[in-house]
Amino acid sequence: MRHFRRHPVQACFSVVLLGCIAWSIWSTGFWLVQQAEWSVVSGNLPLFAVGGYPEASRWRPILWLALLVLLTGFTLAQPFLLQRLRLNSTMLSWSWLLMMPLGLWLLAGGGVLDPVPSRLWGGLVLTLLLTLFSGLIALPFGILLALGRCSELTTARLLSKIYIDGMRAVPLIAVLFFGQLLLPLFLPVQIEINRVFRAVVAFALFAAAYVAEDLRGGLQAVSPTQIEAAAALGLGPWQIQRLVILPQALRIAVPALTNQAVGLLQNTSLMAILGLVELLGISQSLLANPAYIGRHLEVYVWLAALYWLFCTAMALMARQFERQDPSNLLAARRS
User: Fold this and answer.
1) How many CA within 13 A on the CB side of residue 308?
2) pLDDT for position 42
3) What domain range includes position 274?
């Protein structure tokens, strides 16, 4: 009451704002529970998950999704597992790396599995595949660009600067259009590059420029005295970069790199414009069905929930890595 008497305008504004928030929450909850028709989602969950993948082989991408969810849970529970099950970060890192070729093998087939062409891949599986493989390529390429940008060699520094500035000046959709539509025109007729591979390379080349700038900030944040101390201990230039500078720079750049990873996941939705039926492309194809006319809001709320879930999981894993005790990392590395 005392605050209301002293600041009546602010108090009234706060009451009105709280009322608007409460009304928004109540109306949204009422629509979600009573008015929304979720049959467009529940009846098409396999389509959202794997797209047009052959029904007889759908267990393969679904198995990969289940393994990814399980590995994400292990990663988020890493502090508990380190103490109870004696698992270290090295095992989880190798598990994530092995998950990528495993997913590619399960999707593409080969050996004992029937081959499935990439034009049948789609849905959430394709979105995660584009994100993981693009990030896997963009990170080491971005590290090389960042080292080149900070190098004392004029040629390496100039070439890295031209690439980074040039790629950052071009919108992502232009890079994707070039990779999907224009690049095949410059190649001989006999040469045909997989569309998914072209999309991965386009995303990776674009993201590497931003990764390089984030890592350059991390490199510049490392104190020069540590470099001098490493040189006094007899370490060579590459040993200093690998053992002293890069680990600290990567750790400093984790928040910015997480932002790039989240943006990369969200930017995969642009492939719906270019014909790849990832998560957003599946939604657009469903909404084109006359049976689901007027169900746009349900579909896009479902998409927003999926993107929020995966982006939040990525942010939590990155935050956990950022807060991890460096002594645990060194102990895991030695083991």
Assistant:
1) 6
2) 86
3) 47-334
